[in-house]
Specification:
By secondary structure, the protein is mostly helical. The chain has eleven helices and two strands, in the order αααααααααββαα. α1 packs across α2, α2 crosses α7 and α7 runs antiparallel to α8.
Length: about 290
């Protein structure tokens, strides 16, 4: 009972910082998936619920840090980038606020408390899960997955509607090869029509034909610094001269936040193709 209450409290704190709207479905979704996970741990791990509590607490901690920096939740597909954590340790420290530790600070005290309250090993009477328990677990899993399959949802919308536990379950399912089949044929036809319309000759079509083109792409640069002066001194004098000469300057290109935030920028600039958001484009073609 203590573990259930603590997970609910931590989830509510997490939603207070991350969820766009306070929805009843958030709490209901969290409770439903929590009930399923408790039943699953009863069947598979013989009721080692503290292990589940540690896993959920650590997930909330990582999700919270990730959300503070990117504004959305991590995907299981991004585990391939774990080796790059050391290179971005300064960014991790930047988002590591005192409230971040709410999700993990109690793990050791709760562990000691539960161990102290637990009966001696010789008095344990843990009932083995039967076929009924397994059947209920399977039926419950199917009933929870049905809402996902009945409508086309993006992972982030799943989080805002059904909660963080549902988000990660949905994300795990999508990570299975062949499950996420993309858009339907009729949607593809509509999209192709839009692309063909946009492909019509525009204002700058073929304006650089026969010329050498230099594209300057700056990492983490704020556009307001261009043509800005401080105490009479230009902040970006060289860029100012470049854009005032024989150049085209587009100042309404906005950041497209996604898993391939930096690498996918090439597709936006060179091909006018927006990134996928949930996965780096380069990873889809490896």
């Amino acid at each position: 009972m203590l573990i259930v209450v603590l997970i609910i409290v931590k989830s509510l704190v997490f939603y207070a910082y991350t969820a766009e709207l306070a929805r009843a479905s958030l709490l209901l979704g969290t409770l439903s998936w929590l009930a399923f996970l408790l039943l699953l741990f009863w069947v598979v791990f013989r009721g080692k619920f503290f292990l589940l509590y540690c896993v959920i607490s650590c997930i909330l901690f990582v999700d919270f840090l990730y959300f503070q920096y990117f504004g959305f939740l991590p995907s299981v597909k991004e585990l391939v980038h774990v080796g790059q954590v050391g290179a971005v340790k300064d960014s991790i420290i930047y988002v590591l606020h005192p409230e971040s530790f709410i999700f993990i600070v109690d793990l050791i005290p709760v562990g000691f408390y539960l161990r102290k309250k637990a009966p001696p090993a010789e008095e344990w009477t843990v009932r083995k899960p039967g076929y009924t328990d397994i059947l209920i677990t399977i039926v419950m899993l199917i009933s929870l997955i049905v809402p996902f399959s009945s409508e086309a949802l993006q992972s982030y919308f799943v989080f805002n509607r059904y909660g963080v536990l549902a988000y990660h379950m949905f994300d795990l399912v999508k990570a299975v090869p062949g499950v996420d089949k993309g858009i339907a044929v009729d949607e593809r036809v509509s999209y192709n029509g839009y692309v063909n319309k946009m492909a019509e000759a525009g204002k700058y079509f073929s304006i650089a034909e026969g010329r050498n083109i230099i594209v300057i792409q700056l990492e983490s640069f704020q556009e307001f610094l261009v043509n800005f002066s401080y105490n009479g001194q230009e902040i970006t004098p060289n860029l100012n001269r470049l854009i005032s000469a024989d150049s085209l300057y587009f100042d309404e290109v906005y950041q497209q936040v996604g898993a391939g935030n930096t690498s996918d920028c090439e597709f936006v600039i060179l091909n006018s193709m927006h990134s996928l958001g949930e996965v780096s484009v380069y990873q889809t073609r490896e």
